Structure prediction request, 444 residues.
Amino acid sequence: MPNLNIDFAGIKAPNPFWLASAPPTNSGYQIMKAFDAGWGGAVWKTLGVPVINVSSRYGSVNYGGSRMAGFNNIELITDRPLADNLREIEEVKKYFPDHAIIASLMVETKEEWIQIIKDVENAGADGIELNFGCPHGMCERGMGSAVGQEPAVLQTIVEWVMEAANIPVITKLTPNISHIVDPGLAAVRGGTNAISLINTIKSIVGIDLDTYAPYPVVGGKGTNGGYCGPAVKPIALEMVKELTQHPEIQNIPVSGIGGIETWRDVVEFILLGAGSVQVCTAVMHYGFGIVREMKAGLEQFMIDKGYETIYDFKGKALPNVTEWKHLNLKHKVVASIDNDKCIGCDLCYIACDDGAHQAIQIPKENGNRIPEIIEENCVGCNLCSLVCPVEECITMEQRDDGKQHLTWNDKSKANAIPTTFDDDRAGGKNHFVPTVEDALKHRK
Prediction:
């Protein structure tokens, strides 16, 4: 059986599955339930000067029959007294001494940072997470993402914390910035032991068409919130990769956050260099019990691949993530339709004809509705295979022999790239395109 134990920047845990700082970690009661269900660690809901939260706090984006594909919240940090939280941290550690408890913190002055660090250390916290990511409410007070968006300020506060802390420090970054490497470098230069990301994305998930207020509506008004859930996973994966590939950051442990719901999500974050993962929305949707499927799936993946620990495959995808200019222009795939699996919905034809490269046709004889690939027109864009509702009905088949390799970077160095608007060296030169008049043939 694989060994799921981790050592994340000196914080030990029985597995890499942690709860993110959020409503599921609001109390010792919840964290005790989570640990009992199988979670290896928890980042306590952010501690600071208690706030007053509003009533009506969450909104969501439902898509294609799925509830909460994206989730929005306007809840702030803890509204419970610090003393209550500290007492419960101490109690949970007594019951689960081998599980990781990380105290998320957000205060303003250097003196407040020093004091609250002492408080959580005395309560038995295994680590500290600095919340520099919250995009609503707290940023208006000069905290949260207001810090995460200012690398110089972020570095200064990290330096304050590192002077005072005797336990590992994780700096949590905001995605609400144009270049995630900038705050990442600031955190590293400030001395942080680790980084976590992403926090939520500043967002409005919709407008009530009766009140004309953003969701969630609070007394006829609304505000931007923090967006999370499955919809943000691609953004999170990209930002994790940006840090784990950077030469000045790549040796700093990274905890991956954003849209994690299944064991496959966990594996993807680890493959891009994450040493632990944090989950929030999926727990709010399905409960603490989802960790059992995550754990079983991760273990089976490791057994199938022959991995003993997560460190055997941590970052294994990074060498395959490159810049567009280094991709092989000689690689060629075309679509292939399995007639036996095709249900004749013709979604592929519509998508290709209206949204791509007019490389699919519908036969006109005998009422046949099974589409056909016009191979000489197919550019291998994959759209048809993505819209097809039948698994493995449309596959992309390789046509090149894999022996030739030519990139945009190679062509640039050889002065062989298009340089004028009508350059014959353009990639689409002589590609089939229907005439303008052909569009009118579809009129009824």
About this structure: The first helix runs from residue 28 to 37.
